[in-house]
C-alpha cells in the first residue's frame, strides 16, 4: 500500500502490534539487540538457511546472517521466532510444533507465542500489502522501534522538501509521547506524514484515530485508511529547539495512560 504514513494498533493482552509503515529496518534499528537465531515459520532458500532435524523448521543462525535475512528481498511472507540456544528446538513437543505451524499458517496465536523453552523475545509475521504483526515479550522494545520509524519518516519528508539542506538531526521522542501514540488510541492510530505542514520552523504531523477497526482487513489504499480515521492530535517537532510535543485536539479519543508513564 502506497502512502507516507504509519498505522499501528496494539493488542495489550498478548503484546501484539499490528502495523503498516514500520519497516524491518526500523525493527532491527530499534530493538536492543539483533536476534542471534531465527526459527522460520515459512519455507525459504539461500545459503544462510539450515534445517533443524527435530522440528523440520528452517533456521538462520548468527547476527550478521539474521540481519542479512531480515533486510533481504523475499518472494514469500517473512515469518519467524527468535530462540536462544541451538539445542532448544530439540525439546519442543509435538503440540508446540503444531502451535508454531498454526501461527505461521493462520497468522495468529493459539496460546501465547512466547515459549519458555525458546526464551524468544519476538514473534514476527509479515502479512499482506506491507502489514506486519509483531509480538513483543517486552512491549517497551516497540517504543524504540516506533521512535526509529517516526524519525525516519520525518527525515525523509524533510529531505524531500529541502534537497540541498544538511541532514536533519532529530532527537529521540519522549517516552510519554510514544506511550500516548501506542496505548492512548486503542482502536489504532495513523501518523500522517504526507499531511505534514511546517509553521515557523515547527513540523506539525497529524495523528488520526481509527474509527472503524473492523474495516481494517478491507484496507487496500491510503484513501481507505484515511476515510476510516479522523484527526485527533498533532505530533510536533521544533527544528529550532529540537523538542517534540503532542497536542491533543480530541481528548475523548485518547485513553487514560497517565498511570503507565
UniProtKB/TrEMBL annotation:
This is Uncharacterized protein. It comes from the Bacteria.
Amino acid at each position: 500500500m502506497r502512502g507516507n504514513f504509519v498505522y499501528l494498533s496494539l493488542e495489550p493482552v498478548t503484546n501484539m502490534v499490528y502495523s503498516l509503515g514500520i519497516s524491518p529496518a526500523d525493527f532491527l534499528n530499534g530493538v536492543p539487540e539483533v536476534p542471534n537465531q531465527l526459527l522460520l515459520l515459512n519455507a525459504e532458500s539461500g545459503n544462510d538457511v539450515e534445517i533443524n532435524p527435530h522440528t523440520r523448521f528452517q533456521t538462520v543462525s548468527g547476527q550478521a546472517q539474521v540481519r542479512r535475512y531480515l533486510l533481504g528481498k523475499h518472494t514469500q511472507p517473512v515469518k519467524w521466532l527468535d530462540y536462544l540456544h541451538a539445542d532448544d528446538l530439540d525439546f519442543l513437543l509435538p503440540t508446540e510444533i503444531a502451535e508454531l505451524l498454526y501461527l505461521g499458517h493462520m497468522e495468529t496465536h493459539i496460546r501465547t507465542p512466547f515459549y519458555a523453552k525458546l526464551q524468544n523475545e519476538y514473534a514476527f509475521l509479515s502479512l499482506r500489502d506491507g502489514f506486519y504483526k509483531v509480538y513483543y515479550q517486552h512491549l517497551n522494545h516497540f517504543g524504540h522501534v516506533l521512535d526509529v520509524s517516526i524519525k525516519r519518516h520525518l527525515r525523509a519528508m524533510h529531505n524531500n522538501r529541502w534537497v540541498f539542506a544538511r541532514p536533519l538531526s532529530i532527537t529521540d521522542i519522549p517516552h510519554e509521547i510514544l506511550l500516548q501514540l501506542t496505548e492512548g488510541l486503542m482502536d489504532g492510530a495513523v501518523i500522517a506524514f504526507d499531511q505534514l505542514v511546517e509553521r515557523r520552523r515547527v513540523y506539525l504531523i497529524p495523528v488520526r484515530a481509527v474509527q472503524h477497526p473492523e474495516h481494517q482487513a478491507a484496507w487496500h489504499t491510503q484513501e481507505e485508511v484515511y476515510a476510516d480515521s479522523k484527526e485527533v492530535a498533532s505530533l510536533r517537532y521544533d527544528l529550532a529547539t529540537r523538542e517534540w510535543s503532542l497536542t491533543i485536539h480530541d481528548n475523548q479519543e485518547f485513553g487514560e495512560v497517565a498511570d503507565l508513564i
